[in-house]
Design brief:
Layout: H1 4-7, H2 21-32, E1 41-42, H3 44-65, H4 73-85, H5 87-93, H6 99-106, H7 111-123, E2 130-137, E3 140-150, H8 167-183, H9 189-204, E4 222-224, H10 225-231, H11 237-244, E5 253-256, H12 259-271, H13 274-289, H14 295-310, H15 318-342, H16 345-368, H17 374-385, E6 388-392, H18 409-425, E7 447-449, E8 454-458, H19 473-490, H20 511-529, H21 543-568, H22 574-587, E9 591-592, H23 594-603, H24 609-613, H25 620-626
Parallel strand pairs: 3-5, 6-8
Antiparallel strand pairs: 1-9, 2-3, 4-5, 7-8
Helix pairs in contact: 2-22, 3-4, 3-15, 4-15, 6-13, 7-11, 7-13, 8-9, 8-14, 9-13, 16-17, 16-19, 16-21, 19-21, 19-22, 20-21, 22-25
Protein name: M13-type metalloendopeptidase
Domain Peptidase M13 C-terminal: 445-642
Domain Peptidase M13 N-terminal: 17-394
Length: 645
């Protein structure tokens, strides 16, 4: 077996890799490892995140010890963290820091006031009846547009309001609402909680099903101001925009992702009495502020969103929550310090080589495709040639000069949110900044952004087991190599493949090639629809929801193995391939609390980790390396193996 077998604990030799690679590599670990009491899941991803958190804490404390000028970035980092850690001051202030918002809620008389209040709430970090964000126009990637998406729910997904399996969670949610309303001394807290739940349920009835929201064509709805007013006449867009802090021209053209939801929302606005909207708004104000209020609010909020929804027994230590706050508000200022201490130049150099090999492997793979015509291949090559890799950290870090931090925690949180709102809104009418990063350097993750056709690998993930300058090449290609391949693969998944190299929705496929691609995608959907997680017997993966990530995994691992061969200059030996595939399975070593498993199976576009690891069943290279035979658990007849890229 692979060299990893002896190098890392947790393998289960009673499980053959030919039957279950995930179980073989992780079985003993899964059986014996305890999830930390303040975590809902555990594994290499979370371990690295914890390590990065410790590093950031050390940076913050080091900066604070130097007593920096509070107007400088180090001073703002230190002051924000100090305001969170000063529990006595938080308790003494009570809910007075959010009193202006609560008073504003009490004063609303009609739906115009409601819209204005929602703009104000969203500006300072709250969530309203819908979501909004700034992004590039998917059919004109050289400009930014305001995007509107369905929202307004307190539970993770619309299915939580109708599916019988979530009945207990609905009951717990109403109890939670009553609890936080009671803490704020709202009259008839229990009755108000029931009425809020009724409003949520009305809103949920207009939501699109989660898999449908992945469709980049259905969710691209370029809408003029006049059309927006006609779509949702019950909502006062002008009042909302003013209090959000946006210019009037922000709504000249917008993208409405789910138009039928806005039409539905407009109807709900007219059905619900204003006094019930006040109760609903109070709950939104309290929910968004709860993590920064006295301990009773923090505990109530965690009890539902942590214990009930995710199964996490223990609230995270205050310093950990303080680090998260600082990263959310001043993340790139912290990131600048992080990379100076924890990201050696040699890592970036090696990553440049890895990315080059992965891109070369994709080109080689496309050349050999027997289902794609030469015409579409040329377009694929063009897109591949324009991929922009971002490795480690931004070339230019964000400027936080305009953000003022004091000693009031809630005021600081609201100031940071308003600062970011202004930064985002200022993009409208400005040139697209293709150097912007959408993850922090210390983040343990990676992404592909179709609108800029970029792949990004922050410094945080460029560590073992994903990557190390000292690791065997097979380990690196089974770890970060497959991750790189996965992110490139998103440019060619069922949705990303509809974007061209310039980041625009542009059909570059022949009709026959598109049909062949869809046949393969549907085969992968059907394969995953048949999978039932080992800890949730009787429940199944949603193949339509997860197909994009599954295509990313399938292509990423396939191309990672091809790139490994390019790096070697020869075909890998069976043992080398076993090492690569074993490290892939090790990277997905994950143990989740059952509550989180159930939640993620409903809302997560990624498949459960066991199925991400065992996607190897589709790779000829896996079957060759491990000598699988008919009857083995991971055996698939060659005709049934899905190979897209």
């Amino acid at each position: 077996m692979s060299i990893l077998d002896d190098a890392r604990p947790g393998f289960d030799h009673a499980i053959r890799p030919q039957d279950d690679l995930f179980g073989h590599v992780n079985g003993q670990w899964l059986a014996t490892e305890e999830i930390p009491s303040d975590r809902s899941s555990w594994g290499p991803f979370v371990t690295l995140a914890d390590q990065a958190e410790e590093h950031v804490r050390a940076i913050i404390e080091e900066l604070a010890a130097a007593a920096p000028d509070p107007t400088t970035e180090p001073g703002k980092i230190a002051a924000l963290y100090a305001s969170f850690m000063d529990e006595a001051a938080v308790e003494a202030r009570g809910i007075e820091p959010i009193r202006p918002l609560l008073d504003a809620v009490a004063s609303i008389h009609d739906t115009r006031d409601l819209a204005a209040l929602l703009g104000e709430l969203e500006r300072v970090g709250g969530a309203g009846l819908f979501g909004s964000y700034i992004d590039t126009d998917s059919k004109n990637s050289d400009r930014y547009l305001f995007h509107i998406t369905q929202g307004g729910l307190g539970l993770p997904d619309e299915s939580y309001y109708r599916d019988e399996k979530f009945a207990e969670i609905r009951t717990a949610y109403v109890a939670y609402l009553a609890r936080i309303l009671g803490l704020a001394e709202v009259e008839d807290a229990e009755g108000a909680a029931e009425r809020i739940m009724a409003i949520d349920t009305k809103l949920a009835a207009g939501h699109w099903e989660r898999a449908e929201t992945r469709d980049v064509q259905k969710t691209y709805n370029l809408t003029t101001r006049a059309e927006l007013l006609e779509l949702a006449p019950g909502f006062d867009w002008a009042a909302y925009l003013t209090n959000l802090g946006a210019k009037p021209e922000t709504l000249d053209e917008v993208i409405v992702r789910q138009p039928s939801f806005l039409a539905h929302l407009s109807g709900v606005l007219g059905e619900v009495p204003v006094e019930q909207w006040r109760e609903w708004l109070v709950s939104r104000v309290l929910r968004s502020a709860a993590p920064y209020l006295p301990a009773a609010f923090v505990e109530a909020n965690f009890d539902f969103y942590g214990r009930t929804l995710s199964g996490t027994p223990e609230l995270r230590a205050r310093w950990k929550r303080g680090v998260s706050l600082v990263e959310g508000a001043l993340g790139e200022a912290v990131g600048r310090e992080y990379v100076a201490r924890h990201f050696p130049p040699v890592a970036k150099q090696m990553m440049d080589e890895l990315v080059a090999n992965l891109l070369a492997a994709y080109r080689s793979s496309i050349e050999k495709l027997d289902w794609m015509t030469a015409e579409t291949k040329e377009r694929a090559y063009e897109k591949l040639a324009t991929f922009r890799p971002k490795i480690g950290y931004p070339e230019k870090f964000r400027d936080y000069t305009g953000l003022t931090i004091g000693d009031d925690l809630v005021a600081n949180v609201q100031a940071a949110a308003a600062f970011e709102s202004d930064r985002q809104l200022a993009k409208i009418g400005s040139p697209v900044d293709r150097d912007e990063w959408f993850m922090l350097p210390q983040t343990v993750n990676a992404y592909y952004n179709p609108g800029t056709n970029e792949i990004c690998f922050p410094a945080g993930i460029l560590q073992k087991p994903f990557f190390s300058p000292d690791a065997e090449a097979a380990e690196n290609y089974g770890g970060i190599g497959a991750v790189i391949g996965h992110e490139i693969g998103h440019g060619f998944d069922d949705q990303g493949a509809q974007y061209d190299g310039a980041g625009n929705l542009n059909d570059w496929w022949t009709a026959a090639d598109k049909e062949a691609f869809q046949v393969k995608s549907k085969a992968l959907i059907a394969q995953y629809d048949g999978f039932s997680p080992r800890n949730l017997p009787g429940e199944h993966v949603n193949g339509s929801l997860t197909v994009g990530e599954n295509i990313g995994d399938l292509g990423g691992l396939t191309i990672g193995h091809t790139a490994f061969a390019i790096a070697l200059g020869r075909t890998p030996t069976a043992e080398e391939s076993q090492t690569l595939f074993s490290n892939w399975a090790y990277c997905w070593r994950t143990k989740r609390r059952i509550e989180q498993e159930r939640q993620y199976l409903t809302i997560d576009p990624h498949s459960p980790p066991e199925f991400r690891a065992n996607i190897v069943r589709n790779l000829d290279e896996f079957h060759d390396a491990f000598g699988t035979q008919p009857g083995d658990g991971l055996w698939l007849d060659p005709a049934d193996r899905v190979r897209i890229w």
